[in-house]
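Sequence in, structure out. Go.
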Amino acid sequence: MDFISHLSSNNIKPSVQRIKIFEYLYKNTNHPTVDIIYKDLVGDIPTLSKTTVYNTLKLFIDNGITSTFTIDGNEARYDAIMEEHAHFKCNDCGQLYDVEIEALKLKFSKLNDFQIDNTNIYLKGICNKCLTK
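Output:
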């Protein structure tokens, strides 16, 4: 992916920090927190601050190239995959996984007169790696 073009085509001026943060999100599907992003990038970008990471992620979200979701009510995670999908968290190892879903095929009762703009499904259990230990 051409990260500079992707940012530019989404009305985001491609600064060094923005390019590196988006590239990190795109290449690391571990659904990082702000702290993880900062820790992993500050060595390459010594002028990086957590405030810059927060502000950049907000800009990405506002421009529709990144999404955020909360794990266990207190961990904001970030994701550059914008296609609809669910997340699975292993209760044993803590690993997060992307799960393909067909949200339009899901059936919800009592929502006939509602407009659904976004579906966020979060599953918990034991992953196959932990089950085979």
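Check: The two ends are 36 Å apart (CA to CA). The helical segments are 3-9, 16-27, 34-41, 50-62, 128-131.
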